[in-house]
Structure formats: C-alpha cells, structure tokens
Amino acid sequence: MTSSDAGRVEAVLADSTDLRVWDLPVRILHWLLAIGIGVCWWTGLNNELEYHLWSGYAILWIVLMRLYWGLVGSSTARFVNFVRGPKAILDYASTLHRRDTPHAHGHNALGAISIILMLGLVLAVVVLGLFAVDVDGLYSGPLSLYVTFKQGRHIAHLHYYWFTVLLWVIALHLAAVTFYFLYKRQNLIGPMIHGKRKVDAVEAIDADMKIAPLWRFVIGAVIVTAIVYAVSVAFYF
Amino acid sequence: MSALGIRCLAAAVCVAFGFAALEAAAGPAEVAQIKPRQDKLRDMGGALKAINDEIKKGRIDWDNTVIPNAQTIKDRSGYLLNWFPKGSGPESGKKTYALPAIWQKNDEFQKLGKAVQAEADKLNQIALKKDESGLKAQAVATGKACKACHDDYRSPDYEKENEDE
Prior knowledge:
The complex is a heterodimer. By secondary structure, chain A is mainly alpha-helical. Helix content of chain A is 67%, strand content 4%. Chain A contains ten helices and two strands. In chain A, strands 1-2 form a two-stranded antiparallel ribbon. Chain A is globular, with a radius of gyration of 21 Å. Chain B has a single domain, classed as Up-down Bundle (Four Helix Bundle (Hemerythrin (Met), subunit A)). Chain B contains five helices and no strands. In chain B, helix 4 runs antiparallel to helix 5. Chain B is elongated and about 80 Å long. The N and C termini of chain B lie far apart (58 Å). The chains are: A mainly alpha, B mainly alpha. The interface between A and B is medium-sized, with 24 and 29 residues.
C-alpha cells in the first residue's frame, strides 16, 4: 500500500460516522419481547400456566409500550415514519435483489409490514390469552370470567392457532435478517444491540434520529402498568 | 362335499359371526362412554371455573354459585374412575384426548383419580362452611389434582383440533 493509498483510506474513514438508529426504549422493548415470547412459548408447551400468566402480562405490557412509543417515541420508532403505502413497498421490493441500494435508516418499507404483522399478532394472541380457559378451569386468563367455560376453551384453541402463525412470521423475520447479513452485507443485529450504525458522511446529513425524551417513556410506563394491572384483576378493584 | 363337511362349515360360519357380533357388542359400550365422559368432565371444569370466577370477583356468591358447583365437582368425581373402561381410548377411533397411558399405567391413574375425589370432598366441605380463605387454597388444590392427571394422561390441547370440546 502506498502512502497516498493509506491517506485515501484514512479520508474515507474520517468521512464515516456513527449514526443513532434505534433509541434505548426500542432496543429494550425488542429484546424483552423476544425473551418474553420464548418464556411464554416454553411455559405454554409445558403447561406451566401459573408462570405463563405472568409472562403473558409482561408481553401485554411490552406490546402496549411499543404501540405507545410508535406514537410519541423517537423518529425511527414512530409508525408515521415507517409505515408506507403500496407503491413505496413495491418499489423497495423490486430492488431487494440488488446489493448496491442504500441502507434504509430505520425500518425499510418491506420490513415495516412484518413489524406491523408481528405486533398485531402478538397483541391478538395476548388478547385471546386473556379470555382463554385451561382444561382444569384453574389458571384461566384474567378476563375469562366474562366468557363461559366452553367459549374459553374455544378461545384457548384460537390462542394456540394464532401463536403458530406468529411463529411463522417470526421465522420470516429471522430469515430476512439473515438474508440482509449474508446477501446484502448489512448487519441489522448490531444496531439493535448498541443502537448505532456506521454511515458515510454524505448520508449522515439528512438522516439523524430525533430522540424522544425519557420522561415520555416513564409516563407511558405508568399508564400502561395501570392498564395491565386493571386487566389482570378483570377490572374488579 | 359330505353332509358332515357342510355342517362343520355352517357351524364354523356361525361361530365366526358369533364372535364378530360379540366384538361389535363389546365395542360400542365402551366407545359410548367417550362423549358423555367429555360432557361430564367439561361440567367439572366449568364448575371449578365458576368458583374461581367468584374468587376473582372478590364478591363470593356462596349459595347460588360456590355451593352448587362444589357439589357438582364432588358428585362427578365419585364416578370419575368408571368413565374410562378399557377400549374407550384412542384405539376406539373416536376423537378423544385420553392417552393410552391411562390403561398402561392404570394403578397410577386410579391413584390420581382418588386424589381428585379427596380434594373435591374437602372443597365441598369448605363451600358449605363458607370459609373464604379456605376456599381460595382448596380451589387451587382441587385444580392441581385435575391438572396432575391431565398433564400425563391427556393429550396437550395444541395437539388436537378443537371441534366440539
């Protein structure tokens, strides 16, 4: 390597900078959700319903917080900033096979569909779980007192069915992350851990994340905790 | 063919049909247990749910809900072990969550069935005494006695379609 080459490398390096892409709440909620779904899956399969109830409440809290953060959170967390119309989605999908396309900052148009799908399915499965009745009539969902035993048992079966659908969408999500890593050479896992992404200086100009203040998260946490508590006691205070 | 041969053949055919008829007669009686068994167990689950619902509400209606439902569980549990004759498992070809283990490890199964009767008996007594804190503990104990059997002798819910359950 000649000295002029080395200089060029240095210049390129100097032009690249770390850009924040996911704020702390988004990252924490993401990994808590991943762990929570794992715990729910295991406790559900092994009929450990006492713990399944607790992990279910945790997931309800996480998903409600994520929905709230999608309204008032940092710019990349907000639904208005990443949910696109069909044209943008098709445009993005048509360049999926190319490796030279720019890295989307935040969710890309196609990934947004899977985010909405996963959040929707998680919420649907949790809500079904709230009304589900176990075969013993012992550890039923907190809202099951509003349905009969037979209805609750039917809901329990819907709860399994939609969870299976959710697992397939999660599999698709993992496949997509792997595809970006291997084919597009874009590491999506790192930014979800440390929150930053290396970009060149040109790109950095128009795309920094607007961070939402943490007190907003705290307010949401208080409200959501109250809602989850009210649900857990079936609104009987 | 000689007359004797024909008679022998006729006798053999009769015996064969006889056995077939016996087998057919033995089958339906056991298979016929499946549906009413499911209905009765569902009533018991529903009864325990009704008691647990009262506990959740924190306003326990003893006379209209807890006492009659505890009575249902106690009465039904007394007959519980009669509902599982050999031949009423999955080999019947009917849709049932009952696992072959019920008949393979029948001693263990009988023990769990008797445990349910004991817990149901206690639940009934507590209901009659209208003892609220006792009810909370005994509803869990009774449910766990149901669960002990369901965990090992019943197919998990997710393994089967839910048609008429």
